Amino acid sequence: MNLAPDPASLPTADAATGDTDATGPTRSASETSRWTPAELRRLAALIWPGQLLVVAGIVAANSQPQIAQHFHTTQIAWFSLAFTLATVVATPFAVRLGDMHGKRRVMLVLAAAGLVGDLITVLAPTYPVMVLGRVVGGLYGPVAVLVLAAVRDLFPPRKVTMALGTVAGSVGVLSLLAPLLSGWLLDAFGWRGALWFLVVSTVVAALSLLAVPETPRRAVAGRLDVTGALLLGGGLALVVFGVGQGSGWGWTSVGAAGAIGAGLAALGLFVAVELRVAAPILDLRMLKRRSLATVLLGSSVPQAAFFASQAVLIFLALFPHIPHVSDGLGWSTTHNAIVGVPAGLVTFAAGVGVGRAVRTVSPRAVWYAGLTVLTAGLVLAAFYHRDAAQIVMTGVVMGLGGGILMAGQQAMIVSVVSAEEQAAANGLSSLLTQVFLALVNQMLYAVLAADSTVLRGTAFYHDDAFTHAYLAMAAVVAAGLLISLAIPRLARPGGDAAPDTVTAVR
Fold first, then answer.
1. Is there a contact between 144 and 91 (Cβ–Cβ < 8 Å)?
2. Looking at the predicted structure, is the pLDDT value of residue 332 above 90?
3. 222 in helix, strand or coil?
4. Strand (E) positions, 212-332?
5. Beta strands in 296-360 (DSSP E)
6. pTM above 0.90, yes or no
7. Are 205 and 88 within 8 A, CB to CB?
8. Contact yes or no for 260/459 (Cβ under 8 A)
9. How many whole angstroms separate alpha carbon 312 and alpha carbon 193?
10. Contacts of 125 (CB under 8 A, 6+ apart)
11. Distance CA 423, CA 154 (A)
12. What distance in Å separates the CA atoms of residue 380 and residue 391, rounded to the nearest whole number?
């Protein structure tokens, strides 16, 4: 993307620091370290729009069994896949348009599109119409990327990492409340009641965004790189689709192999096109920098494993215990959510703590600590998952590692990119995480299926399946740690001497 800023759109000295309340002389360091009421309101307004995808994902996942039975469909996987594919295609467009026209404006448009999709989904008379609604609803997905990029524009450098840690770490609280809420909604009102909650949630997100100031435009308005965006979005969508269907169709089938091959070919063309156009949809030249390339790759792989590992606990906790058939714990959704409360609180606290820690400690050191803790938690979960006490213990360790992981990623990105590159870097990070998540999920399901029993068309998992699944996720996180060892020394973001454009310390 063309990173030359529009001179007419650049903020004033006060606005450039994100301190729109400053009047008069530049304030002292002690004064600027205090959070003003306007900054706190701004931070609160960004949390819900940024984390709505987490809540929606939990509610939607818990709704799928009822939806499948209502519509008598065996294609329930499309309920999630349609949303994911739409998000993948929309993200590169949203990042570029956010730089050109302001992130708040683009987020409001995406929220409106998401609301239309949610309404189509909840009112759908047939399952194909519902899938169409999920496609339209998936246009909301890039809001999560733009929220993180907007934080860099709306807060002074000294407060950026703390704000990012709070926004990213809030996923812990939402993750522990959403299962309780979704369980109550499904039990009391059925799947349509749960989906109506998502409609209301999208309205609240849009209203919250109205309270957020517009961000500066960081790219000159001009011709949108439609070719590049379609090649990137379409290529990624084909790869994700092929991987998602591979286990069902067979990896050597024409459908799965053809989709993956076509997707990889499109991505190859995308690289060739983007290196030649004047204003690319995503500036791949940034990846020539070792610092950014290793940060994005080293963070996307373990983050995908952390997200995928949540599915192991869902199968373990909610599947019934049937001797010689299923070693699930047979818990209710509500009981599982209550057991997960300590882990959610730790995840949130860890995210906030990272924002403070990187003021004095290298983001890379914090990142290494998070990966080590998460790997240890997954290994512990592999061998200690047979009652509530063990799951609470291992969940707290994994929650600590996961919280450091999510907030630490943002701290590292801030350390290696300028404000003008923030949206593009977050866009690349989101796309990489989604692609790796699709791949890791397929590996996870293959591991679980290796130790399962099929009864009346349903696969039930043995204890060895859960052990091997957790160990597989630990191995992926450890691989991310090995990749991360190539990350060079990073500057501490938000320090007293940190300029707006932060570069890696060579």
1. no
2. no
3. coil
4. 321-322, 326-327
5. 321-322, 326-327
6. no
7. no
8. no
9. 27
10. none
11. 13
12. 10
Residue 71's DSSP bridge partners are: none
Question: Considering only CA atoms, which of 175, 469, 441, 180 is closest in space to residue 328?
Answer: 469
Per residue in 363-411, pLDDT (tens digit) is 888 889 999 999 999 999 999 999 999 999 999 999 999 989 887 887 7
- Which residues 6+ apart lie within 8 Å of 92 measured at CB? 228, 229, 232, 233, 281, 282, 427, 431
Mapping DSSP onto H, E and C, the string for 213-233 reads CCCCCCCCCCCCCHHHHHHHH
Residue 216 CB partners (closer than 8 Å, separation 6+): 5, 9, 10, 11, 15, 16, 102, 153
pLDDT of residue 173: 67
Spatial distance between the Cα atoms of 150 and 263, rounded to a whole number of angstroms: 30
DSSP state of 74: S
Of 430, 441, 446, residue with least CA distance to 309? 441
| Tokens encoding 330 | 């047979």
99 alpha carbon, distance to own chain's centre: 20
| SS3 at position 159 | helix
Query: 128-137, 425-434, 435-444, 457-466 — which one is most confidently predicted on average?
Result: 128-137
The neighbour count for residue 119, using CB atoms within 10 Å, is 18
CA 92/CA 282 separation, integer angstroms: 7
Q: How many CB atoms lie within 10 A of CB 471?
A: 15
Rama region for 190: left / alpha / beta (φ>0; ψ in -120 to 50; rest): left
Which amino acid would we find at residue 106?
V
Q: Is 327 helix (H, G, I), strand (E, B) or coil?
A: strand
Which token pair is 393?
């213990």
What span, in angstroms and rounded, lies between the C-alpha atoms of 202 and 199? Answer: 5
Length of the chain: 506
Instruction: Compare 54 and 11 and report the one with higher pLDDT.
Output: 54
Phi, psi of 458 (to 5 degrees): -115, 135
Pair of tokens at residue 209: 């965004």
Q: How far apart are CA 494 and CA 370, in angstroms?
A: 20
Beta strands in 48-101 (DSSP E): none
Say how far apart CA 314 and CA 185 lie, in whole Å: 18
Summarize the confidence of residues 159-163 as an average pLDDT: 78
- Residues whose CB falls within 8 Å of the CB of residue 38, separated by 6 or more in sequence, listed in order: 20, 21
Least confident residue range of 66-70, 440-444, 456-460: 456-460
Please report where in the chains the tokens 């047939």 appear, as a residue: 126
Per-residue model confidence as pLDDT tens digits over 76-107: 667 877 887 788 778 878 888 888 888 999 99
Integer angstrom CA distances of residue 263 from 9, 132, 241: 37, 22, 9
Q: What tokens were used for 396? A: 């707290």
Question: What pairing do the DSSP bridges indicate for beta strands 326-327 and 321-322?
Answer: antiparallel
Q: Which residue has the tokens 């973001």?
A: 493
